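Hallway conversation turned thread

IA: we were arguing at lunch whether anyone had actually written out Cation transporter end to end. Turns out nobody had. So, for the record, here is the sequence (332 residues) and right after it the structure tokens. Reply here if something looks off.
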Amino acid sequence: MGAKLNNLQPKKKAILIALCISILLMLAKFVAYFITHSNAILTDAAESIVNVLASSFAFYSIYLATVPKDTNHPYGHGKVEYFSAFLEGALITIAGVIIIFKSGYDLIYPKPILKLFEGAAIIGFTGFINMLVGYYLINTGKQQNSITLEADGKHLLTDAVTSAGLVVGVIMIKLTGMYWLDGVISILLGVYIIYNGYKLTRRSVGGLMDESDIELVKDIIDCMQKNRRAPWIDVHNLRAQQYGADLHIDCHFTLPYYFDLNHVHQEISAIDHIINGNAKRKTELFIHADPCLPACCNYCHMKACPVRSEPFSDEIKWTIENATKNQKHFDQ
């Protein structure tokens, strides 16, 4: 429980900073809109409302993710972070759709735009701040294995990119006098916002559906292969699931059939120690021990095996292709 609380502090600090800054920047963007009446600037201001809502829910999800396991949630509450990222992606997408419709209307029924340089200066400043906070959230999210912080950080970087594009567009409008560009720029930014919303929702849905993280599984298998011990004849049916910052691994290990239960327990504990010693996050393992068969002898490293039926010929290296299949390696 103490470790959970300690892990909460960097996440809580990061998201609180993001929330407070998002509120201030939202107010600044609406000030820019009211002095310019620019639809493109309104686009950026509207997305800031999403920033505030997303950061608010992200704070709650980070708190909930650290709540200990209970009877109703035996794997913990970590998956709420995926739901938080999904909600943020959905809000971003909705904002993008509304922006496109609003901009299309203003292309047909244009209105005067005022004080563009002043508005551009405010938007440029807010974009720069969002870029700094975005990188801070992404780095903290990677360190703490928090998809919520990463999602919020990427959202703020998206906001910074749209702000930069907006500043360039507003300056072009002022210099050329082509005020219809205001609506066109807004539509383009709306499309970009929708695309980033889709990417966020796609990743979060993958996490909620326990979609396999290929790179993560490869890292786990490489770790086992590098620290392989003679009694570990093969590993198969390996699966990995992430619940917030925690990782859960299921797999089958083939061990010599003549090992007693104490010896089997020692080997499984050694596997657990190696994985948690090399992993960047807390990992919970569920290992099923399989007994070896005579057909395993040709790739078994046990030198003093009392029941060997044929000599060792060659090691079968563990890869994502054989370790994830639900069969012993000699069945391939």
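OS: looked through it. The first helix runs from residue 2 to 36.
IA: good, adding that to the notes. The chain is about 65% helix and 10% strand.
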